[in-house]
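We emphasize that the prediction below concerns an isolated chain of 115 residues; any contacts that depend on oligomerization or on bound cofactors are therefore not represented. The input was used exactly as deposited, without trimming of termini.
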Amino acid sequence: MGGHNVSNSTVTKADIVEKVYEKIGFSKKEAIELVEMVFDTMKDVLEKGEKVKISGFGNFVVRSKKARIGRNPQTGDQITISARHVLTFKPSQILKATLNGESIEGLTDDDSDED
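Result of the prediction step, given as a token string:
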């Protein structure tokens, strides 16, 4: 992808804490508290059904899905899939361009085309 090395590794919350610890110089405990606070705030906002917009990164949105009829792929029997909430993520134009090795010059975080 665009000359970038994309591996199958996963970044964990502990990895994020470590980066905050290294870059900002907080104590390990402060870095843990900061990262936890950010994630807890995001969870609280999403639980209320509100959108989380992180400029230059993207939007997290909770969407409601109605109950519907589905099919069990093994038996072919019809089943009712219950109504539920799903979390979606839409990356910003800036993040998309960065991931594709494109210039971000002139791009905005305008999300007026959404919702």
